[in-house]
## 1
Amino acid sequence: MIFFTQKINPSEIKVYRVGLVLGFFVLIVLPLMVQSNDYILQVFTHALLLASLALAWNFLGVSGSISLGHAAFFGVGAYTSALLSLDQALSPWFTIPVAGLLATGLGLIMGLICLRLRGAYFALATLAFVEVPRVITDNWDALTRGSLGLVGISGLPTLRLGDWYVDFGSSITASYYLVFVYSFALLGLVAFVFRSNMGLAFQAIREEEIAAEAVGIQTNRYRLFCLLISAFFTGISGACYAHLVRYIEPSLVYGLHFSAIPMIFAVCGGRFTILGPALAAIVLYPVDQFIFHPLLPAGHEFLYGAILVLAVLFIPDGFLGRRQNA
Amino acid sequence: MEKIKKYPKNLLFWLFICLWIILLLVTLLLPVETCFAAVIKIGEINPLSGRFAKQGIEIHQGIEVAVAEANAAGGIGGMQIQVVSRDDQSRPDVAISRAEELCSWEKVLAITGGYVDSLVGPIAAVTQKYKIPYVASASLQKELTQHKNPYLFRVSKLQGFVEPLCGILTEQLKPLRLAVLYAATPGSTELAGELEKCLKKQGLKIRMLEKFRPGTPDFTPLIAKLARMKIDVIVSGGFTPDHILFVRQLKENRVTPKAYIGPFGIAYESFIQALGKDADYLYSTCAWNPGITLPGTEEASASFVNHFEKRFNQPPNTTNMHGYTSAKALIVAMQNVLNKQLPLNGENIRHALTLLDLVMPMEHLHFDAQGDPEDYRHVVVQIQKGKLVVVYPPDRASGHAIYPMPSWEQRN
Amino acid sequence: MWTTIFISGISLGSFYVLVALGFALIFGVTRNFNLAHGDLLVLAGYSAYWLWKAWAFPFVFTFPFAILVILLVSLGLQRLFSRLRDPIELNSIVLSFGVAILIQNSMLFFFSGNYRLIRVPILSQGIRISGFYVSYSQLTLLLLSLVTIGTLYMLMYRTYLGKALRATIQDKDAAALAGINVAAMGTLSFCIGAVLIGLAGPLYGCIHYLYPSTGHEATLLAITITIFAGVGRLNGILLAGWILGLAESLTVVLCGASWREMVSAVLLLTLLAFRPHGLLGKGEG
């Protein structure tokens, strides 16, 4: 089932680049295009958030480690930011990065325990790992309200520059732009890292670890680095989610959904590419919400499953897989 | 050959471009509003997939029956009601998107449906923004109605469960060693908390208060613990599958409490069918069931059962009735608005809802200042010989509670 | 109280091992993660339920039917899995995740969201053994699981076919070099896995309940036990199931039911940290 040749046609690259730039501009002017229709913007805000989540996951994936437990970081990020802003009345400008840092701390713990494992063992260990922060959050009633969940979390923060201010939490349009800027910044970081020498090191580690060690690449350090960065941004995404949806409970933010979704987008979009996961998120999620939902109010999940199966069978390297191979 | 091989790559890519073009076209066509003047649009958002699919579908069915009944009787003010149905996938972010879609795109007049507060809450925030009334079918927690949202109404509340439970425990059963188990969900946790408070006020002590995760595959260690502590009455805030497993394992281990009370998920025909004779002597709370209805509403109740059975080939349960009641509230409120010769818009419907006084089989529905139903109260039922018998409060009781539960050896 | 916990822990633990065996075998031989494993189990349960309810078949006769259904579905699945390219493990996760969604929604469509049970009255009776009460269902679970595990053990360690399977688990390439038809071994592992699921499914519908999305928990259970025992290692699996089951029960009694899920996670992580190759595996040099 090999559809693509190894050679990449120069004209293809041009079309691809034009398409990318076009897509970027469409995203920027989307609110104007849809006249600030909250429904469409809401869906795209979430799509962008999921894109950032997928990018963060992919940061780890690119070094060869498949994590099935990123919901641990997502949940910790969500709860940290929500609790700090609710109980201590701190601004999300502060609580969101702190959430990311706490998630990184958790990532350090996960790294110390799990990173000595490889491949399947690592993946399954991460799957088990989610239970630890989840059960602690669920049972520590005094701190987290336990199973009751958190309600009435504040929205995204307000930016004040002198007299002028923008309340990102008050309008969907503003939230959209904040999440857009965040996702794009993350994309930029990912592009910068993947294209640098570090990116080459990642490729070496994931393809042939022993050879990489032989050449002098300190695989363990790089893998830990990837895990920490990945955890940080996943935590931030979790915090943003809490401020967007404003209702969280342990079974939601630590649930399998947030572990599986970034992986699915990364696989569909292209696991080792820069743009792949984000692209898959921005395309698949809105298609599901705009087209599948109204068409089949009760059966759209079926379509989602079918797409997954078809994607993995016929486009194993994702939409953009072959792109980076030459 | 090479050219053919390249097509699929470009194909995917052009698909991507086309998607943007479609979106562009669609959004440019936004201003074009399709006006079906002769139709009244109501929206409903329920979990039709995901972990609450079962209840979501049942609420949806209840709403369907209410709307079909109204349409058959001529609709509202001569106009037919159209229900726009959406699935929130049991996820809050999707619930928000669906609410946005119904309010801004479909431009519905009101919204109903909804199961569990983690889904109803986000939807209520959206409807408040658009000033569209929302009558939630199955929301329970206190927090939701504390936020002064004038557009949120609901036909159920947690106190409706807690009061009768507290009552039967303190007045009739009077256990010496009571255990309260609850599931790790917001609704169940709050039920346990409120019950504890109420019992404390009446001086009844809880010996064991434990939380378990819904869907636990094995309750044996918990049952062994209960047996060792000689617990006589067990109240479990778990859900249907938890009760099924728990009761089964009670039987397997030959542990017989004097009573087992499960407020959620037991008073259902499907539960009784699943467990058969083992379901006997279990207690639950019930808002409504075919045969258990507010005194004076027997005819309306029977008519609902009739319509439901004709449509779905199975008897309705209390979850269906919650959907039915919430939709009915909206329909009657809208009829009231038209009767006063007022235009049908969100604000007027909201106002009509605040004045609503409707006798339904499930409750005498009228909302308080927060949007809570003032007279929502369950009765306590016990399953006897495969049938639900009301055992509390005494003024609605149709039989006596069989207490204590006969042991498993005696029952076989 | 401790005997009750012990008895139920052992019988339930044996059943969980039965569930996990199919997953472990398939993963060991073909390196395919089958995240739809639990859903296949539920499907087997539903097949048995349908036969029992709609056609009034006695419970015992539902087993062959369930096995047949799962065999067919598994072979179909195996066709799909064999088309995956590297990295097989990750791709199989995504593929089986998608298949799991498909199976779940089909079951929801055909059987609706009601909870279903297969009631076999005789299994809720029991006998007293030296003062302790053991129900027939616990005995059945224990015996059936042990017999099946024993038979599989016989197959794996006493037959030539078993040797070939074990060789493939250990090292696919070396096995191929030794002349073993690796693809056939893959198909065989799927078939054996299907039989195991077909046996466990009706039992599951009997001692637990059937609901379209319970498959997820069963899959997690299978994965946990498999890693605990050591991926690809079958001799440690029974011990793994028992230890996990007993540990969880002890946690509920000593710490409370709300800590149950964390225990298996912590156990697993501790084990992986110190003995990455599982309970009975030899450590890496």
## 2
Amino acid sequence: MKARLLAVCPLLHGCGGVQSALDPGGDQARALFSLFALMMWVSGVVYVVVAGALSWALWRAWRYRGADSRADGGMTLRIDRRLAQLLPLAAGAIILGLTVLITASFFADRALFATRASPALEVRVTGHQWWWRIQYRDPVSYGWVETANELHLPQGQTVRLVLGAADVIHSFWVPNVAGKLDMIPGRTNLLDVTARRLGWYRGQCAEFCGTQHAHMALAVKVESPAAFRAWLAAQRAPATPAAGRGAAVFQVACAACHAIRGAGAAGRAGPDLTHVAARRSLAAGTLTMTRGNLQGWIAQPQAIKPGTSMPQIPLTPADADAVATYLATLR
Amino acid sequence: MTPDLDRRDRLALAWRDPPGWWGFLTTVDHKRIAARYIVTAVLLLFLAGLLALDMRWQLSWAENTRMGPQLYNESFSLHGSTMLFLVSVPAMEAMALWLVPLMLGQRNMAFPRLGAFSYWLYLGGVLTLWVAHALDVTPDLGWFEYPPLSGPTYAPGHRADIWAQMITFTEVAALCASVNVVATILKMRPPGMTLARMPVFLWAMLVASLMTILSMPAIMLVTSMLIADRLVSTHFFAPAAHGDVLLFQHLFWFFGHPEVYIIFIPATGFVSSIVETFARRRLFGHHVLVLAILAIGCLAFGLWVHHMFAVGLPRLGNDFYTAASMAIAVPAGLQIFCWIATIATGRTWLATPMLWVLGFVATFVLGGLSGVMTASAALDLQLTDSYFVVAHFHYVLVGGAMFPLFGAFCYWYPKATGRLMSERWGRVAFALIVGGFNLGFAPMHLLGLMGMPRRVYTYPAGMGWDALNQVATLGSAIAVAGGLVFVANALLSYSRGAPAGANPWGAPTLEWAGDSPSPPWNLAYTPVVDSLTPLWDSPVLRVMDGVALERREVVVTSVVDAAPLYRQKSASPSIWPFVAALAVTAMFLGSIFTPWAIAAGALPIAAALTGWFWPQRERATTGPLRVRS
């Protein structure tokens, strides 16, 4: 089977994608991919050796098929003596292989967790059932700029992710960028990531966290440092909402849980919606961000994502439409 | 040697069970008890297999709507909990319970009533989980329920309690079974079977049972702490009250990792027995195999942290656990070497049990290699909690433990039933199961690397996961079909199979010395052993006489050199193990709802145990043991 996988190896770039450990787009993921490639080669050789030995054994079984008597004692003794000489060789080969792999693993591990004196940027990512709160340390004000479910990373810069959890254990995993690290209530984990390739990637919670564990995804955008700075500045700015019916309904029906900076909504239970329409997806990767999906989500959250903490708010269709229209302006 | 009829009659009188239902409830015959274990485990294997197939169906397409999140979460929780706690471990215990006394030429286990008790309690655990499922109180948080998700805040209701209490049931049952096996192997070996002449199978069962005794307390402790958090508001795992959620993971995996080897080590015992018999030569490297089992047993307690590499523990510790985990490959590799060497240098006969050994080697080695990958603290960060790990542990548990178990089933079936299974259908089942399994689970390695996390009930279109998932579903369906052929073959052969005779495979160990199926008293005489392969080395088995025929007696020997020490009374059938198990069941179930059940439930348990251990007048009389040839 491993041999078959090895044959597939040249095709592995076909197994890439936006959420794949086989298509590294950052330093940490690349280090792990190299370690994986080494392991695949060693494993492949080991499997070929074992399969070869087993085939040889079966060939001998076939050659002596039908022989009914047990092997005569003298010959068995002679063969056993020779096999006993091979045994330390087998043990030595295994130990040698393992030593190589343990050493490689050690250096890969140290490369991942080498403490960098001053990462360019600190980002706090907090897992909630079932979404991600994301806060950037503002280089200007040194305060926090909050958003949700979408992580932007400047290309080529090391970002320190400060991982925590608000309720149960979650796990932060963006395979193209780095390996996963758990988000544990009562603890803080640090993950340094250095993204290299521009583009959109996808991450997903990797530790079972309840009913909607499957719908806890994270959009990740790697962009040039200049574009990143512009994006962060836009996120820092408060919303410029148009006053109207949508804003009024939102203030009554939604503001207890959701914040919109600049519009007086300051709820903390759900995601910050200050620039929600600028995001790529809705409800932690469940829907793409469109005006229609916004309205559908507001009207029927439990049908779209059963079990979500977002309650079914009884709004008239006209009110739901007004809130969706309002949110769609929050870019 | 053939016992005369008079002797058989006297033994039959002493060792018979009461007729009918009373006999069913009171029996302490290790073979009847083990058969119950195996039938229960096979039934559960089938049910949990159907759950797996249902989940595979759900995952065959992106956004499939066969299952909602709740049903899917219940399905994988029930599948995992059943397979790990109610199928794998009990099935291995059942094999020990059935075969250890036979392989020792003894008439019963050291503690016959404890054997009965452990089955009834295991059945209590089975019913707790599956009756709760019928009542829609199914655990839905996986087979390890990490707090705080399983704590009182995030898991209201009784689903998590059912899971935790089901574990308490099966762990008490497993402890009883293990104590029984250890005492039997250490103190009841036939005269002459020194530790050095003990077959690998018995070593495997001994080490696995010792590991059970050492590791099970950790999980009983941790599930009790979880129940206490939920029932009486202790805060062991509540971070807000300075509890620590990781404490749960440490204690769980301190049991959870040895458990994998508690399942795997008996399998190495099966493989060793089958290889020796079908290669028709003494195992090459008997001592190496025994030392490898001991080494795995010791190392198993030093690597639980490799289940927790992603929680962010200190790096130096992770390096240690990486090395310790990879070190398992040394003893495991040497075992493979010894088995292949034996196959190559013997006159190997590829009957069905031997085919399962070949399937085992071909599949398990892949699981071992993916295990080396997940053992790397660094690489594991990309692999853990993804489908790669799902593939890995199915390769290890199914390829490494279930395939040998199926082989063992075919191998010892004639001893248990007196009939041979059909070779032709055995081959068909083998091909379907091994082929289907590999087709079903190999693609999951790739799915995991392509980012598919485990325990997701659905995934969006456009992830590129659909085709591989469909192949996985197809393979699983083929394997399940093979399982049905296997079971049908076993059922039909029970009445239609060719008569097996005492030793159809020409095997070398003592369980094949007597009739098939074994009578309730096993062997008419106590065998005397002077080699590893007694049925091959002496044309006539030497035996010893002097154990009572009119009452139930067994021989007790010394631990190291198996010198006969004394005759020991063996317990007769009794209803008390059943009553005691009922009382314990009532207490365990009650304590899901109120802590007072522990106090109130202690009284019936005390009453049942008093009845169980009430002194009886009949005693063994000591007398000289005579050696006969």
## 3
Amino acid sequence: MTQAVPEQSKKKYDLGFARWVYDNIDGGDKLSMCMQCGACSGSCPIGVQMDHGPRKLFMMIRAGMKEAVLSSNTLWNCTKCYRCVVRCPRGVPVTYILGSLGTKAVELGYADKEDTRSFARSFWWSAATFGRTDERLVTARYYFSFGLVEGIKKGLANLKIALGMVKTGRMHIGAPHKIKDTRGLQAILAKAQEIESRAGKG
Amino acid sequence: MMTDVEKKKFTYYPGCSSQGSARHLDESLRAIAPELGLELEELDDWNCCGASVGHVAGGSLPNLSLTGRNLANAAKQGKQDVLTGCAACYLNTHAGNEKIKKDVALRGRVNEALAAADTSYDDDLQVRHACEVIVNEVGLDKIRERVTNPLTGLKVASYVGCQTVRPFANTDGGGSYDTYDDPEFLDNFTQACGAEAVDFEVKTACCGGSVSVMNPEKTLHLIKRILDAAKASDADVIATPCPLCQTNVEMYQDAINKEFGTDFNIPVVFYSQLMAVAFGLDKEKAAALQRNTIRSEKLENMAKA
């Protein structure tokens, strides 16, 4: 079982949350190497869309700002370009840490309204049901996760793109592509989920 | 005009986009592979790699088990390296493979999950990107030798994107492949095909990846930057190895024109489509040029078959 995340401290500087990150976040053990140089935030193509750049977010972890970190949109706006990972002079796997923090934020209920969570759910539904990503159905489920009206609106806004894809044979009509052994895959995923809830970080 | 060259065999992992938005990458890659001495045997019953968001909804170990199952299937097909043309498939499968190989306890957990379907991954396979294989196994001379229809006069902006080279441009298995910020392999491919590689300083800029699929309003400016640079360098086409880069940069040009008052209509093709045309192969069956929503008349007119 993942260690319970400690409550937000009343103290100004409390390493409780940082220690939880070190132990429970993929790549978190490297976080102590961060020297706050800012190469990550400076390299980020989408920093303008983030409420905190990765450098600041890492300092917030050390400062014990659990609530602000787990509800930060930085976790969701990362495009996974890995520029920060290859540039970090201290070998901190920034992108992986943000991704893993996102996974935990979802688990802990901090991201109920995040678009990425809805998109990820649609995506995982397809991967687990068919063994493959059906781009049509993932997109449609994602659009309609905003409600019927909003779903239709988003669908119509992208109608021209969709028609172009159909015309060029890049969006097929008909049943989803499936793997042969969907039952085997589902058994594997169910078992992996069970192991994870028992063992903590994968 | 196939010669009897000895082919190096790979287990080929096409990835989900090969059946959808990036069919033209899969089709052209399968067409050029034998010409370059590569035999691609499709990975049996391959599944999704987890892409950029699998871990968010599935969790870390279930997401890694997707890769575990693919590698278990690959190992049953033989010890040959696994090859993929998709940037995300490469990143996830390669990263997952390295993690599993280095961490005995993690391999144990993955295998415990795989045991639910009576399978396991106990081997030491290598996972490689098609471009890295073309750089290190095929070489530019072989590409040049195979070119019967040089793309003379075609100006190409070689757009590498992110995950094809980051973070794995330099790997234990694949050897030194290229650099993270200023890779040259794509320019080299372009030139080997007889085309002109124009100056293109945003070659590893980000297209927004899956954020562009979810929330294009957040990332249109990133794609615009790529299109601006291609236009400034007077490119006829943008060439890329990445499925998501190809789709994002192609399909959002209308939205960008609407948002920024521009008039972009720049074809975005895969390097493998360029090679197929340069090798004199069929423009539809091999180069799959009919699958681009923005067609390049200039490239299509160059096709010999």
## 4
Amino acid sequence: MTAIVRPRPMLITLGLLLLLVFWLSLALGPVSLPLGDTLLAGLRLLGLPVEGGDSQQAQLILGQIRLPRSLLGIAVGSVLALSGVAMQGLFRNPLADPGLVGVSGGAALGAAVAIVGGSLLGGLPPAIEPYLLSVCAFAGGLIVTAMVYRFGRSDGQTNVATMLLAGVAMTAMAGAGVGLFTYLADDATLRTLTFWNLGSLNGASYPRLWPLLIVAVGVALWLPRRAAALNALLLGESEARHLGFNVERIKLELVLCTALGVGAAVAAAGLIGFIGLVVPHLMRLLVGPDHRVLLPASLLAGASLLLLADLVARLLLAPAELPIGIVTALIGAPFFLYLLVRGRS
Amino acid sequence: MLRANNLMVRRGNRTVLADIDIELHPGQVLGVLGPNGAGKSTLLAALCDELPANAGTVSLDERAIADWPGQERARRLAVLPQSSSLNFAFSVNEVVGMGRLPHASGRVRDAQIVAQALSAADALHLAGRSYLALSGGERQRVHLARVLAQLWPGAEGQTLLLDEPTSMLDPLHQHTILQAVRDFAGRGAAVLVILHDLNLAARYCDHLLLLQEGRPHAYGPPDEVLTAQALEAVYGLQVLIQRHPERGHPLIIAR
């Protein structure tokens, strides 16, 4: 079963799909804008002198609410999908998830410390509270991943099997920490914590967007340069070494990309599951395992899928909003089961 | 030229390899024989810097093996491990194409080399198939084609290390594959091959190294190494040595 689809048309299709979903994501919401107005207002935001359309309202909703939210969705979705590809390559397992190296667990613990700790200290000034949460989540993810990586190292080599088990153990420990803070939390903070754990693009703003966008662009530019090495790594670590790759360095780079990328994504939008697992898997079925195609395909598809999930999250119970983690899990888990059953037959 | 001087490898307190002095000469095939656990794969790992030597040296073209930059080394030295863990649905062409990753010879040239290497391993008909759909023996031939492609066409100054390349092959392919390896050496490359089948070793190798508990028991041309005495000492197996009626190399028959 090799890739039947030729890579270039497939990538162009995925790119067009992302543009379409992006457009819908800008237009649809509690206040839906006509698609034409959205396009015109969008062009005007880019500084093009276009006439017509109900400009004022559309432009305000677009510029202040929908655009940052959609860009956040694109950055989170693409970074989660790319990290998923990196981890599945590193662990040479198509069912690996970016959370395996402990970054999600660590970020959740960091967020719990910020949310509950902040309220136990008698509340933080509202000006710094959201930033503190992001910084703590990002730092938590990095620290736990660094520890997992350390556990996997001995004699100058990284044993990915040990790292995998260390990731499971550290995630369990971080989970215990989150549980402890949940126990200590009062009703209001408990609600904040729970919602954060389910993920959301709600309340996206440019200050929250920029750090993630920078990390996402960095990861998106860096990982494709390692596509050949990732291919070789799938043969096995010693095979990759015999093909001339510095395997230890590449493993470190992959873990670092994932820790930074997922850490920043989780810090900006909370825990959003299944994108990092399902998107690379699905793309591998469509374009084959070659990372030179798989990485850009996963980037585009991850961004599209997250924007779609966000559309469902905000339209299904409008004007109320579902946490996006519920939507991705509802789409992702049955799909994953379908893949398992299909793979068995 | 790949050369090991007084090579010694320890695992824990146990010496698993010692007193190894070998040279791989251009155009020649060196066969490594020995019972399970005699240190054959350890030797191969030490020769390609997978396992650090506790004493002695391994050098490639007079330069310590560990000092070579990865890519330059990969253009001179290719290694076929005993088994592969590849678990992704690459096409056979893509797998063999990975052998060209250390080179920048261009897509057209790479495609030619992939086809020639596949043809040498009698696997050209598998080219478009998914690797995961192949049988064990077919996969083994595809990986052999991959390491052949890495050094193709196999000139002087290049070295190929093979760990039991025939372990999963049917009798016909055991011969076609070793003949392909022989032809590869014929173009100038040096080859080291670990084998279990004594008769295949007698037929296709120029020199043999017979290992016993990590130490060389005999090292020389097949006629000198494959003696009833040596084989009984190393394997505990009683054999008759005859001559191949047509080719004249030793033929080993268990008593």
